[in-house]
Amino acid sequence: MSPKQWKPEDLSRLASGFWASAALHAAVRTGLAAHLAQKGPATAKQSATALGLDLRATRMLLDALHALELAMKQGDSYALAPGLEALLTPDDAHSLSNMVLHMADLMPAWAELAGSVQSGKPVDMPEEPGDNGEPAGRGHFYRAMRDIARQQAPGLAARLGLASGQRLLDLAGGPGVYGLTFAGETPSLAATVFDLPGAQPYFHEEAANHPRGGEVRFMAGDYQKDGLGGPYDVVWVSQVLHGEGPGECRKLVAKAAAALKPGGVLWVQEFVLDPEEPKHPWPALFSLNMLINTEDGQSYTAQEICGFMQEAGLTGCALDGPTREGSPAALVKGFKP
Ligand SMILES: C[S@@+](CC[C@H](N)C(=O)[O-])C[C@H]1O[C@@H](n2cnc3c(N)ncnc32)[C@H](O)[C@@H]1O
Predict the structure, then answer these.
(1) Reported pTM
(2) Are 160 and 267 in contact (CB under 8 A)?
């Protein structure tokens, strides 16, 4: 691959790219995006009045959304661009609104990235309490995981080779979209979602949308301290390892392997890092996201993930490729002899 030849305008675009992100975040945070998605075209005055926003500022934001091709303008009226209606309607099954809100929550820590690179430590960002007593960002986080998983999970059960009558553990499954979707696609699969107690309300919220939601069990626990139950035919560990340093990953993979039946399979989904020939910038950028937000989390290479599996006694470890075509997430599998 020949190196990119940078032009001044390319560098300027990248340096100021966060302006566009912040405009999208503001459109979602103020409710403007949802308002246009649900009510259809509206003038700046109509939107500002309905949402209690400043009129001049609302017009400026709408003009920016138009310039970014997120909105269309006809006369004084603004409408969302094609394809955005479902994505920006908060309770639509295809919504990514909470992913946008979670990204907005991450902005202050990303602004301090240089400090983390100097110190090697995460950014010290006090958690803001929300109305219901839990951290304000928690709902955005779990629902963002849900929004992303809803795009990734459908159709995956067949690729994982899940079969009727098997027992599956969705380890640190958060809102449980994977376990719930796998159960929906595999008759009489007995699925358990394990996560911290704080994830449980988001699991129940999601389970209500799934035909077999009532049959999937939520097991509240801390994977560092508590048993995982089992034995299972399949353990699915999606987007969990990157939150931990290598030592904790080793322990967690060993615990998952111990919870498997002989012949069982461990599937890991991660943003797999390829420092030599990155196919996508996301895994390396996600690693920085872990630098600023966790003590020692990071993205891992396929070799490192296979190393954790081999140390846990698993065999046949291999990178299985991207979860979906073009996706920055990929699957790694290992078998219990
Ligand atoms: C990035 S989310 C991934 C959620 C889900 N597996 C997915 O792919 O959408 C990481 C999950 O790990 C869970 N988690 C973190 N530490 C944990 C612990 N010590 N015990 C159990 N779950 C934990 C979080 O609550 C969260 O649901």
Answers:
(1) 0.95
(2) yes
